[in-house]
Amino acid sequence: LEHGSDTGSAYVFSRTDTGWTQAAKFTPDDGAASDRFGWPVSVSGNIAVIGADNGSAYVFSLGGDLNRAPILQISTGAYHSLAIKNGELWAWGNNQHGQLGNGLDENLFSPVRIGSDNDWTAIAAGDYHSLAIKNGELWAWGYNQNCQLGNDSDDNIPSPTRIGSDSDWTAIATRSYHSLAIKNGELWAWGTNTSGQLGDGSNNTSPFPIRIGSDNDWTAIAAGVSHSLAIKNGELWAWGSNTYGPFGDGPGVLSPVQFGSDNDWTAIASGGNHNLAIKNGELWAWGYNYYGQVGTPSSSTSVSVLTPIRIGFSRAWSAIAARASHSLAIKNGNLWAWGDNRFGQLAYNSSGSVPMQVGSDNDWTTIATGTKHSLAIKNSELWTWGNNEFGQLGIEIIESRIPLQITTLIKNTFNPAILLLLL
User: Fold this and answer.
1) From CA 309, how far away is CA 100, in angstroms rounded?
2) Of 80, 194, 256, 393, which residue is the least packed, with the fewest Cβ within 10 Å?
3) pLDDT tens digit string along 253-303?
């Protein structure tokens, strides 16, 4: 083993009958050339751990850098962000109400791991609270003055708390003051219900999950500020406030009502008062449109769109995300954005009332939108842009109008001396 002083690389040699042969050369992807990379080095089987004087340890396997494990999920609240990597739960940004889950109320400008569990499978960030699923169990924390956590109280909770005893939850969605979930294909809801957004036929708030209807074939859910959306057998269903559609100029509804008769809807997203949906690869949108977040031509900006309309002519849309005043989508791996751009959340230099492509990369896979910021994943790497008032970008910067990579979730920081003792 040779650390190579300040060369920034570590070399591993294997012995042969005639001498030593270089078996591998390790170089950090963040360019830590001046950090005496390779001091120390330890190899065990297919794993190599490389230390550096900056207090970091890099873990490699024959298949590549283990610390570059896929970031499977991301979710954004109003001003905080969540991610799942290797089953680990990470959080950063605004923590005024304990929505990060670390037991404190201080904002965090870089991702921090929440707890030590590595079996988290789903996350949903509300405006100021968070939901997650672990081993099929439902967990919640953060702001709870409207009973949106579902723990039969209205007290805020600063760390993840299990909701009920069931272990077969599969999907979660939340926005401001109410939450939705799917369990065994059943639809459940809790929190505030002033506009009928829970879907139980009443306007009564529920401090704990209640089952909505008797169907057991629900597959997707999305929560707006005062309405809800869901997909069942490819059908689009909506309930709650109808101020911004989708049922035209009419009253709200207190229980799920099917929109139209199509049965090929595959994805839904609610930005609060505007909505996006994908049907047969087509992009559809409706709702509040003051900032052009619906995606219609500029002539209709500031006019609410009360029934779903198709956006463009493509049938290659694969992912959608929406928040208060802007929207994101992915088509053929390309990233598209539209709506409000006052804080750089669109990642280009102007606002736009129709989808505009962001850059030229074609390997984007996952997107999430906060009130003033955005997150996205490409090539298993996490990128962020927009406003960073509360640390929601996960990096030390005031604002960015271009995507920046969050490197904290690529390279973990350890004490090399302690880590090497474990091998």
Assistant:
1) 36
2) 194
3) 999 999 999 999 999 999 989 999 999 999 999 999 999 999 987 656 668
Task: Write the single-letter amino acid at 353.
Answer: S
* Distance (Å) of CA 133 to CA 6, 87, 106, 342, 388: 44, 11, 24, 34, 27
Task: Give bridge partners of residue 400 from the DSSP assignment.
Answer: 386
Who's near 308: CB < 8 A, 6+ residues apart?
Answer: 245, 246, 259, 275, 277, 284, 285, 286
Distance CA(301)–CA(389), nearest Å, equals 28
Q: How far apart are CA 24 and CA 340, in angstroms?
A: 49
- Counted residue by residue, the chain has a size of 423
Spatial distance between the Cα atoms of 215 and 79, rounded to a whole number of angstroms: 35
Q: Which residues of 196-212 are buried (b: 16+ CB within 10 A; e: fewer)?
A: bbbbbeeeebbbebbeb
Beta bridge partners of 265: 279
Task: Count how many Cα atoms sit within 13 Å of the Cα of residue 17 in the half-sphere of its side chain.
Answer: 0
What would the mean pLDDT of 6-34 be, rounded to a whole number?
A: 58
Three-state DSSP at 407 gives helix
Q: How confident is the model at residue 199 (pLDDT cuts 50, 70, 90)?
A: very high
**Mean per-residue pLDDT over the chain, rounded:** 87
CB 93 within 8 Å of CB 371:
no
Bridge-based pairing of strands 129-134 and 64-65 is unpaired
